[in-house]
């Protein structure tokens, strides 16, 4: 069942996103463009009116790097074509996590550095960083069209590691941000939902129809799917699509980003900052509730509590959870 969220009226008025009085009654993103900031105070519209067909992504188009506690700061590239992890510290006896970036990012982006470092400082596991910047660094239409092809290659890699190196899928997880969240979902679907869990960090909305579960991340893509919404209804997906969906500060505009966050990029990026902080031990306590207004009024104070993010995510949680954060680090109030 899809659970809908409200929108921030002030920001909606400024840039034309749906307002708080607007319900989501369409499968499609409501604007023919995404607004991006090319330079401080200089905004341009990224066209969405001519979606491309899926791109035939090749093995050589994607790079994957392995990190472990033995090489936290030293990247080791693996050969995707034959899933070669010879002479790498990969250990199939340990849990494995894939991290997939979103649009206009690569393996060296802050997202990847923050998450792999936070994970490995306290957990002895294999971390694979997926770099699909050949397409992600191009226009949004191209990046969107490459998502299925990127997912196909990562799923193939996981299957090869399973068959040749004894990777255990039910001890494997994927973290994906924005477009990368949908890559994670399609990887999980290709692996028949056998992954232990997926964490979707503000999954992208533009060009992903709400009702087309086969094209995007969905709760059926892993044994457990957690979603962290920080720009819902703008850059991020506007409805709940996981087993548990967390809405810090209501899920749209994040504390500290301010009304100058015209494009939504600050709020969109907070999803991975919150996760990174939680991986370092901060506890983001959330309350199950029907909506943010009810949470703020105290109507749900006696409802079940859960924690957002962390290495050992709360798999008991089902439904929508709300919480408030600080506007600057440390973001967790608890």
TrEMBL record:
<comment type="similarity">
    <text>Belongs to the AB hydrolase superfamily. Lipase family.</text>
</comment>
<dbReference type="InterPro" id="IPR029058">
    <property type="entry name" value="AB_hydrolase_fold"/>
</dbReference>
<dbReference type="GO" id="GO:0016042">
    <property type="term" value="P:lipid catabolic process"/>
</dbReference>
<keyword id="KW-0964">Secreted</keyword>
<dbReference type="GO" id="GO:0005615">
    <property type="term" value="C:extracellular space"/>
</dbReference>
<dbReference type="GO" id="GO:0016298">
    <property type="term" value="F:lipase activity"/>
</dbReference>
<dbReference type="InterPro" id="IPR033906">
    <property type="entry name" value="Lipase_N"/>
</dbReference>
<dbReference type="Pfam" id="PF00151">
    <property type="entry name" value="Lipase"/>
</dbReference>
<protein>
    <recommendedName>
        <fullName>Lipase domain-containing protein</fullName>
    </recommendedName>
</protein>
<feature type="domain" description="Lipase">
    <location>
        <begin position="54"/>
        <end position="331"/>
    </location>
</feature>
<dbReference type="InterPro" id="IPR013818">
    <property type="entry name" value="Lipase"/>
</dbReference>
<dbReference type="InterPro" id="IPR000734">
    <property type="entry name" value="TAG_lipase"/>
</dbReference>
């Amino acid at each position: 069942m899809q659970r809908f969220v409200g929108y921030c009226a002030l920001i909606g008025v400024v840039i034309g996103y749906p307002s708080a009085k607007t319900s989501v009654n369409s499968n499609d993103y409501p604007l023919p463009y995404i607004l991006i900031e090319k330079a401080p105070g200089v905004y341009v519209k990224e066209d969405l009116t001519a979606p491309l067909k899926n791109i035939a992504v090749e093995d050589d188009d994607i790079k994957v790097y392995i990190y472990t506690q033995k090489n936290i700061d030293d990247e080791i590239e693996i050969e995707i074509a034959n899933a070669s992890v010879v002479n790498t510290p990969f250990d199939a006896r340990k849990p494995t996590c894939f991290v997939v970036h979103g649009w206009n990012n690569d393996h060296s982006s802050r997202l990847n550095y923050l998450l792999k470092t936070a994970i490995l400082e306290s957990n002895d596991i294999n971390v694979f960083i997926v770099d699909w910047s050949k397409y992600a660094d191009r226009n949004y239409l191209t990046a969107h069209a490459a998502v299925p092809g990127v997912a196909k290659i990562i799923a193939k890699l996981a299957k090869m590691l399973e068959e040749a190196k004894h990777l255990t899928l039910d001890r494997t997880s994927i973290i994906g941000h924005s477009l990368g969240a949908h890559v994670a979902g399609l990887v999980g679907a290709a692996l028949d939902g056998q992954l232990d869990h997926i964490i979707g960090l503000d999954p992208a909305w533009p060009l992903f129809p709400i009702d087309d579960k086969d094209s995007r991340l969905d709760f059926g893509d892993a044994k457990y799917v957690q979603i962290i919404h920080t720009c819902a209804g703008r850059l991020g997906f506007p409805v709940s699509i996981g087993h548990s969906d967390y809405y810090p500060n209501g899920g749209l505009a994040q504390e500290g980003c301010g009304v100058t966050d015209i494009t939504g990029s600050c709020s969109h990026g907070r999803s991975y900052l919150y996760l990174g902080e939680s991986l370092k031990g901060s506890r983001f306590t959330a309350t199950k509730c029907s909506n943010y207004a009810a949470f703020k009024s105290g109507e749900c104070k006696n409802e079940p509590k859960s924690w957002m993010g962390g290495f050992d995510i709360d798999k008991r949680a089902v439904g929508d959870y709300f919480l408030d954060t600080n506007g600057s680090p440390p973001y967790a109030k608890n």
